[in-house]
Amino acid sequence: MKRAIIVHCWGGSPEYCWYPWVKKELEKRGFQVQIPAFPDTDEPKFEPWIEEFQKAVGKPDEELYLIGHSLGCITIMRYLETLGEKEKIGGAVLVAGFSEDIGLPEIKSFLEIPVDYEKVKNSVKNKITAIFSDNDPYVDLKFADIFKKKLDAKVIVKHKAGHFSGAVEGEKTCLKLPEVVENIK
Fold it and tell me: What is the pTM of this model?
């Protein structure tokens, strides 16, 4: 059975912004969808997050699709780095993702070692899709180029979509993100 796991952002929850809408849309297409609540979401630490994620995934296979938002993207990449040489997931969609320090010391435990882009790329059967906004207040658009070059990702840049999150710092809440659903193959 095809399944998808949505990894929420720092400060997020399963009910946050576009996650419930994507869950509902994927379920209409026959997916089993999980949105785990990650521990200490307001003060995230890498080890507890990756442990929670590994529990949610169970056994990875090519019927598994991973969807991450912001901190959820680096969580997914760190998870993919742990897979064995013959283990693959079906695909991944990374929304407002980053793979290097973005100037927020609170999340440095996720970024202490460089990402093994080759390992991440080789752990995904189908293409990785990365979605960015040209006015994201947290994630520089340079990551679109990095993901395209180092992950061979399909990159989508939306105009004035902010951080694709809730009403933070005056940003309008993003409640639907059809590009996520369209890029789960």
Answer: 0.96
Return the CATH superfamily for domain 3-182: Alpha/Beta hydrolase fold, catalytic domain (3.40.50.1820)
The secondary structure of 35-49 as a DSSP string is ----TTTTS--HHHH
**Count of Cβ atoms closer than 10 Å to residue 35 Cβ:** 21
The fraction of the chain above a pLDDT of 90, given in percent, is 94
What residues contact residue 31 under an 8 Å CB cut-off, 6+ apart? 2, 3, 4, 65, 184
Domain boundaries, the chain: 3-182
68-104 residue pLDDT tens: 999 999 999 999 999 999 999 999 999 999 999 999 9
